[in-house]
Amino acid sequence: MTTLDCITPPASCRVVGISAPAIVRKRLLALGFVPGSAIEAVRAAPLGDPVEYRIRGYCISLRKEDARLISVTSGGA
To answer: Which helix (H) or strand (E) holds 25?
Structure first.
């Protein structure tokens, strides 16, 4: 198990859990980062931050500091 910030594009993984303060956790859950969801790392910005992820049919960019709060396992979709 690792965190989402360690997944480099192109790769995929699955959400295991979120270890964040309540308000940030609530926001990430609302964005679709619920346990069991498949995530695909699509591409990174030229300097590596933020990274674009595809989850539940849409794309979202997360900063590494936010991605570090999401625990994942390799082998997604």
So the answer is: helix 22-30
How open is the CA angle 76-5-22, to the nearest 5 degrees? 95
Half-sphere exposure for 67 (CA within 13 Å, toward CB): 24
d(CA 55, CA 74): 15
Please tell me whether residue 11 adopts helix, strand or coil conformation: strand
C-alpha 25/C-alpha 8 separation (Å) is 22
pLDDT per position as a tens digit, 1-47: 899 999 999 999 999 999 999 999 999 999 999 999 999 999 999 99
Kindly list the structural domains of the chain, giving each domain's residue range(s) and its CATH number in brackets, ordered by start.
2-74 (2.30.30.90)
Whole-prediction pTM: 0.91
